[in-house]
Write a structure and sequence with these properties.
Layout: H1 8-37, H2 54-57, H3 60-63
């Protein structure tokens, strides 16, 4: 069975997706630090009922180091 190499477009998509993911993770970290210090919101993540990050950042599950096992 021959292995197929991914296309250049797929490789670019993975790289761009990884860069965007890293940026979003950094912004959420800044938002978390801002929530802890009582500062104003840095990013707006209130896009509806399902997508909110302000209340979720300070929940016990979000601050627990083993939240994936709960």
């Amino acid at each position: 069975m021959a292995l197929h190499r991914p296309t250049v477009a797929l490789a670019v998509f993975w790289i761009v997706g990884g860069i965007l993911g890293a940026i979003v993770a950094f912004l959420l970290y800044l938002e978390y630090i801002g929530q802890l210090t009582g500062a104003d919101a840095i990013i707006s993540c209130q896009w509806g009922v399902l997508v909110t990050c302000g209340p979720n950042l300070l929940s016990p599950a979000a601050t627990s180091s083993d939240s994936a096992t709960r």
